[in-house]
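To: structure subgroup
Subject: Chain for Friday's discussion

All,

I'm putting the inputs and outputs inline so they're searchable in the archive.
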Amino acid sequence: MKVAAVQMDVTIFEKEHNLRRTLAKLETAVRNGAQIVIFPECALTGYCFASRDEAMPMAETVPGPSTEIIAEAARKLDCTVVVGLLECAGDALFNAAAVIDPKGVRASYRKLHLPCLGIDWHNTPGDKPFEVFDTAHGRIGINICFDCSFPEAGRVLKLRGAQLLAIPTNWPVGSDAWLHTPHVRAMENHYYVVAANRVGEERGFRFAGHSIIVDFMGNVLAEGGDTEETILYGEVDLAAADCNRVVRIPGKWELDRIAARRPEMYGAITERS
């Protein structure tokens, strides 16, 4: 199977424009063989809003107008899509990623860990536990940007059966997360990682690019540059991510980072400070 990470610029306040570009890039990715396509954080809306009131008109329910249009494209193209947007639910405003496959809009993931940056100054923290989405093309877990700075976020998804971690992100220049985090999360959890970052500038922030696809051994399958829009592709075997035992020298050097866990020793992780 081939997966894709779409590295693209986004225009704040121009949701229809962003949606048209998202659909065009989705068609290009699928035409080049991709079956799972990951887009950046807030790809439909932009990120650097100055207030909740400014952002709220850009938000939608999930399912909603934009995700239903993407769902129709996913049905025709027979693909699975993860795309970032602002989701509203009553008075709540979430930084979210919609999961869409040929059967329609499956669900949304709402960002749980909020940095003091962009719209996350004003968002509601995610209110859903980490979930693995059993799509038509594989079992996908999601961390949005800052979420992946927390090892627990990636590990919970592995324990729930994720074969691929999708990271829709807006890493700005000055963040070095792209240098290390995707490789470490992939290797320590023995699954694929697809991180789709933005490029371009928005309200004084320049985004770092370097979208990346990493296999479950930590090897880079594809990586973008720091300024150009591009679509990255990687050939993956998602079923292989379920085989956690790594054999380097049979009978002499073997390891399994899941079977070797000692949860009874990890109590401090869930203790409230």
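Points worth raising on Friday:
The chain is about 20% helix and 30% strand.
The mean pLDDT is 97.

D.
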